Amino acid sequence: MPLVVQKYGGSSVADADAIRRVARRVVETRNAGNDVVVTVSAMGDTTDELIDLSNDVSGNDHPREMDILLTAGERISMALLAMAVRDLGVGAQSFTGPQAGVITSGSYGRARIIDVAPGRLRQTLEGGDVAIVAGFQGLNQETQDVQTLGRGGSDTTAVALAAALEADVCEIYTDVDGVFSADPRVVPAARKLDVITYEEMLDMAASGAKVLMPRCVEYARRFNVPIHVRSSFSGLEGTMVVGPTEGEEAMEQPIIAGVAHDTSEAKITVIGVPDVPGSAARLFESVARAEANIDMIVQNVSATHTGVTDISFTLPTAQVDAARAALEGDHESIGFRELVVDDSIGKISLIGAGMRSATGVSAKFFSALRDAGINIEMISTSDIRISVVTRAELVNDAVRAIHTAFGLDSSQGEAVVYGGTGR
After folding, report:
1. pTM for this structure?
2. pLDDT for 346-401, tens place per residue?
3. Residues 221, 205 contacting (CB under 8 angstroms)
């Protein structure tokens, strides 16, 4: 039988009615002649509520206990969904991440999947039951502790299970009908994409598109797992995320896949860095020790008479304090004058594999920003992406201007967001 792995996000299992709706879809897939493995996220805002509760109980950092606490949300979802599926006459068994054979390593709160041993899942499928797995979690074999995977953990769990079980497809269910050319909350005329490559989707995800997380897409690309992004609130076909079609040339692909944006980053400017060999290395070695994820980097041209330069970089706002503390701790060895943090920025990215073979893309991109009155603070490019940083309050205007300039607006009406969160 074909094997389908399905993942349902928090908005798809937000309450009892939603869980019953998901159960009906699972049963329909099973009755259509497929083996089915399901990965679920915590219901609605459960994870955030657990984090708030922990803060009310203790203001201290307890990484191990937090991971044990946060895995409870997915366990609730998996058990309730298994009950709902059974009530519809189909056998179902629920499993925690460790029970499903998800093996992790790394730090609490941001562990990585290093292996999947899906023996119990295979036995469940062979017995004719649906296997329902709690996403976002696994077992560290060295410590025998449960660990959570961080943002996008349930998506990554689903793709990892699909790879280990050699599934025919991994269906990621969310509250929109697929991957769009822009966030439909910002651009109501955003166009749904029928197909997008791993490469384009990876850049879209890394640039702020919330429908999939970069780790999930990277895992799928590594193991060539087809992803079908679709809505749990409709029966419409969604977006297939796949590798390049064999023999397909880049020039045959659409020039632009879409526009992504991200307002969850901040900018740190290190002022007065000595312009000598090794200064940048010392600076970014310090940031690396703080385990901060750097995105864009710009170094100003130094004036000959001063012998110093300024270096700016962007990173997630949540990691600013750790990075700043690390840099201040290494102030003497780096030799900079001061640090300036700016958390009111936003990033806009234009993505498309066809950009490799097209001319004039950059000119049209920057002309659209100029005409919209958007000032640019930083620029970063790759062969399939152009990204800029501007003021956070200008991001939505910039996204809409670029989307229209590249002819991405749909003529088929406004996109529908069913759940309201984009995941």
Report:
1. 0.86
2. 999 999 988 877 888 999 999 999 999 999 999 999 889 999 999 999 999 999 99
3. no
| Helix pair 198-206, 214-223: axis angle to 10 deg | 160
The domain tally of the chain equals 1
Return the number of other C-beta atoms located less than 10 Å from residue 283's C-beta: 21
Per-residue pLDDT tens over the stretch 140-185 = 999 999 999 987 799 999 999 999 999 999 999 987 889 999 998 8
Q: Where are the beta strands (DSSP E) in 135-275?
A: 137-140, 145-148, 169-174, 195-197, 227-231, 239-242, 258-262, 265-274
Classify residue 89: in a domain, yes or no. yes
In 3D space, the residue among 326, 394, 212 whose CA is nearest the CA of residue 313 turns out to be 326
From the list 265, 270, 396, the residue with the least C-alpha distance to 343 is 265
Residue 383 lies in a domain: no
CA-nearest of 144, 134, 141 to 103 is: 141
The rounded distance, in Å, linking the Cα atoms of 405 and 102 is: 45
Q: What are the backbone angles phi and psi of residue 197, rounded to the nearest 5°?
A: -80, 160
Question: Rounded to whole angstroms, how far apart are CA atoms 152 and 213?
Answer: 5
Report yes or no: 239 and 178 within 8 Å, Cβ to Cβ: yes
Closest CA to 39 of 105, 131, 102: 131
Q: Is residue 356 part of a domain?
A: no
Which residues are bridge partners to 103 per DSSP?
Answer: 115, 139
